[in-house]
Amino acid sequence: MDSQTLVCLLLVAVIGVVVDCNSEGDALNAWRSQLVDPNNVLQSWDPTLVNPCTWFHVTCNSQNSVIRLDLGNANLSGPLVPELGQLANLQYLEAFGNNLSGAIPTEIGNLTSLVSLNLQHNQLSGPIPASLGNLISLSFLNLNDNSFSGIIPSNLFQLVQRGNLRFMNVSDNMFAGTVHRGNLTVTTIIQDPRAS
């Protein structure tokens, strides 16, 4: 292989990494554009940078891919956006204790590397999307103290048998239906709506 071909291959590899990082920055910027941020927590989220790895509350791996978002108790308002499903290597989405509203986008089910999804103490509503059953690496799911309704998708409980799910808290929502606790080997906290 001649040196010119090697340089071309290296250039293609570098451009591929930059494009991938920019797509993650674009996804996060799409979320930021929908959020109200009265405390300027997201001030460092500059979409003109090569990648989002220098932004506060964002952690990246050695390949400059986003693996963690830490936005708990940040006083943010607004929705979760479908673009978050493009963060292919995301392992931790910590957005608890905010004023997030609307539904969980089905695209969150694309985050198959996700280990922890913590959205407790928000104003999220609608059904829990069945696509969350695709999160085969999920170990920690905390959705309590929101306004979710409908039934809990059965494939979430199947994550216990085929995945790593060890903790699931969906209390203080407006779910309907019956959960057979005897079939669960996970720490699950479910509040009976009739107990309120």
UniProtKB/TrEMBL annotation:
InterPro entries: Leu-rich_rpt, LRR_dom_sf, LRR_N_plant-typ
Annotated keywords: Leucine-rich repeat, Repeat, Signal
Domain Leucine-rich repeat-containing N-terminal plant-type: 22-61
Signal sequence range: 1-20
Record's protein name: Leucine-rich repeat-containing N-terminal plant-type domain-containing protein
